[in-house]
């Protein structure tokens, strides 16, 4: 289970450049505009982003990064331990 108690319909990413609450707000605001995203939660201390999505398919990572990179961030898949 991930940072926020991931369940079906959720995906978790690492965002190494996220350092503060302002970063969290910029990131969550941006990714909420990605097709299929229902809810976004970010944690700067954990450097994690969780997206809850509609339907059976997670939002495309390239689409997530398309809105994050102009802000100076990049989402990366979380490696399971």
Question: What's the CATH class, please?
Answer: Alpha Beta
State which percent range the strand residues make up. 15-25%
Corresponding CATH architecture: 2-Layer Sandwich
The largest sheet, given as strand count, sense and whether it forms a barrel, is:
4 strands, antiparallel
Q: Tell me the span between the first and last alpha carbons.
A: 11 Å
**Parts with pLDDT < 50 across at least 5 consecutive residues:** none
How many strand elements?
4
Fraction of residues in helix: 10-25%
Give the number of helices.
2
* Number of domains as seen in the coordinates: 1
Order of helices and strands: EHEEHE
Cα radius of gyration in angstroms? 11 Å
- As for the CATH topology, it is Alpha-Beta Plaits
Domain HMA: 9-76
GO molecular function, one term: metal ion binding
Protein name: Copper chaperone CopZ
Pfam family, one: HMA
Topology summary:
Blueprint: E1 10-14, H1 21-31, E2 37-43, E3 48-53, H2 61-68, E4 76-77
Antiparallel strand pairs: 1-3, 1-4, 2-3
């Amino acid at each position: 289970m991930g940072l926020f108690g991931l369940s079906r319909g959720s995906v978790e990413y690492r965002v190494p450049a996220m350092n503060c609450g302002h970063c969290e707000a910029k990131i969550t605001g941006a990714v909420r505009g990605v097709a299929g995203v229902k809810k976004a939660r970010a944690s700067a201390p954990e450097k994690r982003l969780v997206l809850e999505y509609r339907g059976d398919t997670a939002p495309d990572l390239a689409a997530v990064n398309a809105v994050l990179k102009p802000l100076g961030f990049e989402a990366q898949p979380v490696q399971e331990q």
